[in-house]
Amino acid sequence: MQRAKVPTTNIVEANITRKEVVLSKVFLIDSKKRPLNPIHPAQARPLLRNKKAAVFRRFPFTLILKEVCPLSSVSPLRLKIDPGAKFTGLALVNDFTGEVVFAAELKHRGFAIRDALTNRRQLRRSRRNRKTRYRQPRFRNRVRLSGWLAPSLQSRIENIKTWVRRLLKVASIKAISQELVRFDMQLIRNPNIQGKEYQQGTLAGYETREYLLDKWNRQCAYCGIKDVPLQIEHIHPRAKGGSNSITNLTLSCEKCNLKKGVRDVQDFLKKNPVRLKKILSQVLYPLADAAAANATRWVLLNKLKEMGLPVETGSGGLTKFNRSQQNLEKTHWIDAACVGKSTPILNVKGVKPLLIKATGHGTRQSCRTDKYGFPSRYVPRFKFVKGFQTGDIVKAVVTKGKKIGVYTGRVAVRSSGSFNISTTTGLVQGINHKYCTPIHKKDGYSYGT
Predict the structure, then answer these.
(1) Same structural domain for residues 240 and 92?
(2) Looking at the structure, do residues 180 and 314 belong to the same domain, yes or no?
(3) String of b and e for 44-61 (b: at least 16 CB within 10 Å)?
(4) Is 6:66 a contact under the CB 8 Å cutoff?
(5) 222 and 172 in one domain?
(6) Do 179 and 193 belong to one domain?
(7) Which of 90, 192, 312, 383 could be cross-linked to 177 through a Cys-Cys bond (beta carbons 3.0 to 4.6 Å apart)?
(8) Rounded to whole angstroms, how far apart are CA atoms 175 and 310?
(9) Dihedral sign from CA coordinates of 141, 144, 150, 153
(10) Domain boundary at 254, 283, 312, which?
(11) pLDDT band, very low/low/confident/very high, at 195 (cuts 50, 70, 90)
(12) Looking at the 3D structure of the chain, how many domains does it have?
């Protein structure tokens, strides 16, 4: 075999223990950065031990071969995405074997962005009131371009795009499946709709039930009990002219359903006006999280199509149908693996998802403020100290002093070169930069398992 020069970018030489490699598969690329078949951690350890491979990236964990080898056949994978308002599930599935090669749950920071923008707006208004003369408003400067999304929604799109691109570099992805709509509203309104095979039979009920479970917080609307079998119940009974419209349906436990019978909700809850008012107001209240996710799903679909891969779409009801047919538990990554009609019999044994949290890249504030909005302390203009910046994951091997030991975690830099490291056991302060070795550079995300 001919030895090739391995690129040094993003490569960290390391010996990986059994505890560190906890995910089901390890991604593998050749010396020319072409994706190969993912391998089991037991196969990855000898490659590292014999120095035939190096760690190319920690998250997702990827090895790069040091020697040129003939490119063998690589199994195609399908990337499945279940986008949501707060969490997005990701799964890499082999369509032929049903094996889930990789799974992740991505936590978005949309609400943090919303709060940050609100805080910035308040600070700017306060400063302008104090320091600038009156100026008439110029609303033409605030015209939004076509296709504009609020920053809190746009961040969800960018997070998913980032991780799709990362996975495309380390895995042989040939197709993408996306849950396009949380609920098939056309099917809910007309259960007898024709034209698509998956909308026939039992699946039509899944769309309605899943919608109601989300809308009524998976609890009985009349007594609030959870974790019991729930039944679909007509708020205004059909015996008195009530319709099957989604606005006339709620969830009820068996006891409340039998007790209510064919009585109208106002008669049934006349002794509990607080509960009655809550139900009547929630009947017409839209799903906020579903609305936020639906506002971005079409934009996300177009972005995925721009990557040149075939994109399959499915509804939330179909996802639940696939999951229930295989008796799988409800998690974000399993929902992602069940997206679309292409879902095979899944093999999820031993899969442990990578937990990803979007944290952003810091702030550009020139100074920090107190609770009244007045400047309180100075913020340094530089980010890097001795080659490190706050948020890097480092490994510190301290050989002398009062803090002898090995510490791994996120670093907070100081201009003096004495850093703080946040480990799983707590915060360790005053570690000299000379003892620190970078493991993973800050990329706007934090990771867990």
Answers:
(1) no
(2) yes
(3) bbebbeeeebbbbbbbbb
(4) yes
(5) no
(6) no
(7) 312
(8) 5
(9) negative
(10) 283
(11) very low
(12) 3
- What is the domain-level CATH number for residue 417? 2.30.30
Same domain, 209 and 180: no
Residue 354 is part of a domain; what is its CATH number?
3.30.420.10
Does the residue 278 lie in any domain? yes
Q: Check whether residue 181 and residue 303 sit in a common domain.
A: yes
Is the pLDDT confidence value at 21 over 50?
no
Angle at 33 between CA 32 and CA 39, to 5 degrees: 120
CA distance 316 to 107: 19
**Paired tokens of 436:** 């620190």
Closest-CA residue to 245 (of 284, 279, 214, 199): 284
- Structural domain of 328: 77-109+151-185+288-358
Quick check: 401 pLDDT over 90?
A: no
Alpha-carbon gap, residue 162 to 108, rounded angstroms: 12
> Mean per-residue pLDDT for 15-30?
63
Same domain, 312 and 296: yes
pLDDT digits (tens, 9 = 90+) for 38-90: 999 999 999 999 999 999 999 999 999 998 877 778 999 999 999 988 899 99
